[in-house]
Amino acid sequence: MATTREGTTFKRCGCTDPATGKRLGAACPRLKRANGTWSPTHGHWSYQIELPPTREGKRRQARRTGLATRDEASEALAHIRGLLDLAGEDDYTETRIADLVQQALRQRRELPGTEDVRRRLLGGADPSAEAPTVGEWLTEWVNTHAMAESTRRSYRGHITNHLAPHLGPIRLDRLRVVHVQACFDAIEERNAHIRACRDSRDEKARASVRGVRVVSASTQHRIRATLRSALNDALTRPDIPLQINPACHVNLPTAHRPRPRVWTRARLDHWRRTGEVPSPVMVWTPEQTRAFLDRARRDRLYALFHLIAHRGLRRGEAVGLPWAETSLEDQAVDIRIQMIQLGWDTLTSVPKSRAGERSVTLDEATTRVLQEWRTRQNKERLAAGPDWNESGLVFTHPDGTGLRPSWVSEEFARIAARAGLPPIRLHDLRHGAASLSLAAGVDVKVVSAELGHSTTAFTQDTYQSVFPRVAREAAEATAGLLSGDAARQA
């Protein structure tokens, strides 16, 4: 019997002892010739090697008998060792390679080839190549992958603030679900610490988290989506030996999309007493929206707020709307571009989805408001003379320069405060426009198309609010049917 460094080759036969009837195995004298060399005609060669344990930790071996020569057995041993070496120091991959070897032996098939294993488990990567760390890959990916600049800025925040500090040093090919889960567990632990400090009576503890926000469940899902997208792209790279996307198998707290809530009288009274806003997404009643528009008539950009409140344009779509895509004669505007803000910089981009590129029909009142605004802008162009900046935009400053989106939001908040109205975001005017259209009986498919949504379900679930007056009318209508039935029965 000859023993290799890792594994053993040996020769046996099926002869039995005449006295006991037991197999002689490797002790059969006919296995060797008189000169001590192996007999080429008697017995068969075998090999045996210890494999990595199963995933349950059970010991196992790779063993095959019936080989014709010792060289054949040694070559098979060397091949198995070479396959296991592909895993490097990765125990998970080593176990999976051992599974393939064990399966081939049980099914009496040839051992898997090196290139086949490399392609199936390592994505075709060269095992001798050093895989990048998670931090290195995320940095490369976010800087080079094609995406909208606003999306890139959001992804960079996720990477810098959450993913890189926890996962950055780990080699990409060794990233596992437990690592990603530990990252989000750490985020939840920090959330618990922030909440505990806020509730503490210790002033120093409260001061330490002042201005620090917890990472909400919806934000955690967006962080996971960033990691998942980056790892999906890594899976397509033949030079990166990533086997699965661990981000797909992480348990996160359920994130519910906040539903719009209407500023009813009770909620308004509660806000005035406590300063607490009931929901992140609040919608004015039709009466409150009219009060805002009445106050906004004194503002130069009344037409902008009127357009958003009536037709539900996004802030960036309204600010970036060009006259070339506006046809007041046909009472329609085409949404093809939008203005987005990255920090202090602004840039022009296309809508995020195909549904966002759409035509929005204008009502007669909005058309008249825009015609009056066009007349005013032409007067400002004449007054500015050579100092006029020909941006081609519908809404501009008096010198023709485009508006900064954040400045428009600040102007909206100032007008709302002067009108004595409860706070909402400028984007919530869009929610209100959707709710008004649905409450007026407009078909949800029409509303969804006008808003630029890909599905009507999203429009109903996210944007539809039930105004108190509409809800009361529905309740009275139902009660009327019942009272009518009762009267007929009497």
Question: Would you mind describing this structure in some detail?
Answer:
Strands 1-2-3-4 form a four-stranded antiparallel sheet, covered by helices on one side. The longest helix has 23 residues. The chain contains 18 helices and eleven strands. It is elongated, with a radius of gyration of 36 Å. The protein has 490 residues and is α+β, with helices and mostly antiparallel strands. 26% of the residues are buried. The protein has three domains: 121 residues, no CATH class; 116 residues, DNA polymerase, domain 1 (Orthogonal Bundle), CATH 1.10.150; 213 residues, hpI Integrase, Chain A (Orthogonal Bundle). Helix 4 packs across helix 8. Strand 1 and strand 2 form a beta hairpin. This is Integrase.
Helix content class: 40-55%
| Chain-averaged pLDDT | 86
Q: What is the H-and-E element order? A: EEEEHHHHHHHHEHEHHHEEEEEHHHHHH
Radius of gyration: 36 Å
Count of beta strands: 11
Q: How would you describe the shape?
A: elongated
Low-confidence stretches: 1-5
Tally of separate helices: 18
In terms of DSSP E residues, the strand content is 5-15%
What topology, given as strand order, has the largest sheet?
A: 1-2-3-4
Structural class: alpha+beta
CATH topology of the largest domain: hpI Integrase, Chain A
Instruction: Just give the CATH class of the largest domain.
Output: Mainly Alpha
Secondary-structure arrangement, i.e. CATH architecture of the largest domain = Orthogonal Bundle
* Count of domains: 3
Termini distance? 106 Å
Main β-sheet description:
4 strands, antiparallel
CATH superfamily of the largest domain: Intergrase catalytic core
